[in-house]
Amino acid sequence: MRDLRPNVVITTPSYAVTLSEDAAKEGFDLTSLALKKLWLTGEGCSPSFRNRLEKIWDTSANFYYGSLEAGAIGVECDQHNGRLVDEIVIKGVKFSPFYLEEFLMLSNVVLLEQFTYKVILVY
Question: InterPro entries in the record, alphabetically (predicted)?
């Protein structure tokens, strides 16, 4: 992570803690990454645990719900008031392969400037 300098991390809540502990052991300050978003997926996560992760990583964290078979099913908006389900997913259309552009579309992210996302998927 120190070399790749991602601005988005997608991981499970428990592995986000493991990464933060490993970074601390290595003397690496995760806040130096200046992440734009931490996406949490793959397991349950309470609001208080999410708040803990947001403090550790110094960024907002949102929940992502999906599957290998269907791709993105629901993503949480920045207001943290539930997951948004895309109409296309409801109609049974599956995204294959699943690209970052589609993920950004489903998460209601509006890109005001053109820039490159560096994403690390960790499981």
Answer: ANL_N_sf (IPR042099)
Residue 4, amino acid: L
Which residue has tokens 């599957």?
67
Q: How many domains does the chain have?
A: 1
The answer on pLDDT for 18 being more than 70 is: yes
- For residue 118, give the DSSP letter: -
In a domain, 15, yes or no: yes
Burial 28-58 (b: 16+ CB within 10 A, else e): eebeebebebbbbbeeebeeebbebbeebbe
Does a structural domain hold residue 100? yes
**Domain of residue 93, residue span:** 8-122
Tokens of 15: 């592995």
Band of residue 103 on the pLDDT scale cut at 50, 70, 90? low
**Does pTM top 0.70 for this prediction?**
no
